[in-house]
Amino acid sequence: MARNAHGSDSSRPAVRRPRRPAHLAPQRAASTEETRCRHHRQRCAASAHAAPQLRQPHARVEWRSVGSAGALGPRQHRDDAGVHPPRLPALGQGVRQRPPSGASEIRLGERSARWCQEVSATGGIRLVTFDLDNTLWSVDGVIRRAESEMHAWLKPRVPEFERLHASTLGEIRRSVMAADPDIVHDISRLRVRILWDAIEHCGYAAEAARELAQGAFDTFLDWRHRVTYFDDALETLMALHGRYTLAALTNGNADFERLGLSHLFSFGYSAADVGASKPHPEMFQRALAHADVAPAEAVHIGDHPVDDMEGARNVGMYTIWANLMAQTEPAAATATVTRLKDIPEAIASLVR
Fold this sequence. Notes:
Order of helices and strands: HEEHEHHHHHEEHHEHEEH
Largest sheet: 8 strands, mixed
Helix content: 25-40%
Structural class: alpha/beta
């Protein structure tokens, strides 16, 4: 039956208050988080249909450090689920412990200005999500130290472990991942399983190996959370807190609550929580649903051109590339900063 513009039957006058379209109606609390996410995806899909430009690649706003040091080598691949310290460059080679100093400038193109107008029309940015590793601190040194402390814990308890050849550990790792492919998204469980099987390989009974593996991992995880923040990291979070909802999104196993950041971050998700690693859209969509915001009301900040920038951009979020370690791999982001303290102004520029 045809309906007029007010949503009523065209054959008789409207007698009731017109109903709002389903994708704009206030959502009731879902019984489960998965149901809430599904409803949110439907609403975002309807919004994207009405404004397809939100799915377009973002225009870039570049914050550049004037007179900063030249680019260093390509970014090292992150993987803190191994059982031996990865072969990484020495401190200062391939990574920068502190963001480069110098005055900054912002360049806002005509296309970026149109995007800013769209954000203003939706009410502005409400949700700011942060990656953790290599965004708020450098992770490589943290993992090396955690690995070292874990091996020191194991040495008197499982002396045979230190004599395992790297090829043997590699085979154990491949076997674990082949038996449970999804374990790659839960690097804590992956690490424990590799340790467990490796200790069993050394001749220990299954139950004893399990307990030893858990003890070794607990030591690793303790040191994994002893981080040295980048300059202005905490000050930047405090400046943003209260103005926006802040959330942590990580592929790793750093826990913002264990780090003592629960007073700044309202919530957080890891790859283990959602069963998928960035750049898969699930983590970003889960955050949008949790905060009950549209993609155009959210911005994601991270260091990885693919995991962070492409992942967030593909769900319609704004992106700020925190290029704190002079990466040479380009990132298609709405804005780029080389100092964390420039983030508040970069976010504000989206709604001018």
